[in-house]
Design brief:
- The chain has 29 helices and 23 strands.
- With about 800 residues, the chain is α+β, with helices and mostly antiparallel strands.
- A hairpin with a 5-residue loop joins strand 2 and strand 3.
- The chain is globular and about 95 Å long.
Length: about 800
Amino acid sequence: MKRNKRTKTDIRLLFFVVLLVGMAALLARGLLRLTLVQGEQLTAAVEQTSVVTTYRSGKRGTIFDRNGTVLAYDEETWNVRFYRDPTRTSPEDSARYTDTLMRAIDIIEQGGGEVIDTFYIDMNPDGTYVYNWGATSEESKAVRKKNFIEACNFSNPDLTAEEAYLILRASWQVPDDYPYSQARKLMSIRQEAVLTSYRAFEGVTIATNVPMAVIAELTMLSDQLTGILTEKNSYRVYPQGNVASHIVGYLGKQVTPDMLALGYSYSDAIGVAGVEKSMESWLTANVTKRQGATEIIKNRRGAILDILSVTTPQNGLNVQLTIDLELQKVVERALLENIEATNAKQTARINNNKARYARLRSDLDSIQKAETGAIVVMSVKTGEVLALASYPDYDPSLFTRPLDQETYELLFGADSNQPTLNRAVGIRTAPGSTFKMATGFAGLMEEKITVSEGISDHSPYYYFVSDPHTKVTQNAPSCWTGRPGSHSNLNLSRALAVSCNYYFFTVADRVGIERLDYWAGELGLTGTTNVELPGELPVQVGGQAARYDFSKPLSGQTSAMPRMIYSQIVSHLSNIMSRANIGADDPNRAEKIARCATALLELQQGTGEELGSKIRATLQRELDIPIGISLVHNDWVVRISVLLEELRWKPTYTIQTGIGQGVSLLTPISLVRYVAAIAARGNVYDAHIVSTVTNPDGSLYEKVGPTLRNHIDAPDEYWDSILEGLKGVVSPEDGGTASSVFSAKFRNAGYLELISGKTGTAQTAAAGNIDVENTSWFVAITPRQDPQIAIVVFIPNGQSGSSSHIAIERIVTYLYEQSDYLK
């Protein structure tokens, strides 16, 4: 019995072992198949994941005035983003996203927020559709069009805007009852999503600076709003409003293709004007070296599988300016007050003399009066800009959101006064009599005059003597008094005080344009001041290169004269061809005329019969006009010769340059730098509006300026003579040109005795004989002994230089009564 029982037990054990072996064999077979058969497939699946890096920017740097007052900063805010799952591409998914976005848009707008408006297709008032690529350069437009077509999977790159709109509207399942205005919001978001689909894991921002009530509602409904998330961000704040707007500038989404390599994206806001633009590389937090990075693993459809690492972004650097905000406010108010007072004075003058002005301009309303202007206040000892005002101004905060059409027209429209134009650096015009100090200085340095030599205006006109036997009397310039002998035996100081044109005609004639231009350049009146502001125009004084530079093409000329002459030559050539009945049916006629006009401009160095022969040869070569015909019609050639003659520099132009007229073109900031150089007795500084750059923690990154550009070693008596003349301009005892314009309050306070200055009344080509349209300049330095501050006031169509005394009064009074600069 025992043996039988053990035998049964052994049989059961054997059966169990066999079963285990069989199961192991099956498992081994499965594992073998998994390894050998499916291994390749699993490897392929693993290889389709990838590690990518997403970037996040910190805050843009803060801009301060010299005393630490904030002018621009980034404030923390909440944004709304839309994440589209790249694995969900069915029509049902598209419809679901459309519904989600419609609900999100309603919540955002009802709560006071705004969604993005970037759709590339506009609808005109007449119901037609046009592309609007939101860029100014043709290169950027082409890039955006290409990206748009590819992202939307359009097989036809030449779709009209309407065709593209209807296709997208259907594809994105926009409800039929949605009008264009509402559909545009939804389609802007969908457009941004497809444009960035290759980085779908980053999502797109659909609303910025959203109220907290909206954030709370979106968060509460997050389980119903698939793909809608909220996140902290920052936006630009300009706490001073319009004050210092031309200095601070503004931001805009104008990233260019070449900036992408630095780490920018097309959705980033960059500096477009002012210090925001000039100091972009310091202020920005969008460049790669300052961005935070998050490494993630994603699958081939863009879905996030894991996060590998996170680094914190760095904020941009901070920029401290040289300007004083309180002084800036005073300067801006003074400028506006001066413009308004001058405009009222001009209006009264015209109304009281309607018959006189009607003879000069039949449409009295077309007479230009004071409406714009600029002021710059500079430290004589360092070149630091303490205040810089341009009127009209604007609010930089307008650019933190899309501009509506009305605001756009106000800022940039053809009928606007261009509020965004910084007139302190971006307008060049004749300096008038404020240039006479340079003329006198050149005469002294070239030893053509002495500080004591007397010059008299024996005639009201200055007749240039081209050679010992020829006196040029045609269009002879005159002194502003119009009376012979009114300025007798004047030395340099006295000539500056009474602003005698005859005196400075004489000095300029003796010096010659080359040396006059040289010494003006030494005083800072050449090129730019290098101030850290975009849009500064280079200045010029005179000489052949200033009128027409033989070495440069038409497009490279600094003067407007060559373009005007070119246009007149083109018109003349068109008339010639019509009269000669040549090329009437030639489709390339306009191109040939343009080429001929350009070739003729290159002949203007010739003279006399030699020039005539070259003109005829050019007409034959370029326009097929036989030389025989041009000989018969010699008046054709004569007219071209006369026009070309206008491009040559003449000694009479030198005389006009001596009093700041002609082709001399200066900016307000160049003029204040020049006046500061005279006050500093030959120290010419670069202008600076940036003082320091600091790290986010406040430590110093870079100190800027002062930068001594040039030092002129001249005898003290030269500087004394010029400065004495500037004192005489405002001195009642000396009877200077501005001695009687200042208020009794200003004089009684003793401030008139603390300043020196020079007025400038520059005639413009447009003004003709209408005095109220003249440009007004007033430059001043203070105190007279050891000057510290230089001021320039510039008012186009300001009637006369002395009209700008109001701003000088207000600024000087503030400097002595409420600031520490002159204590």
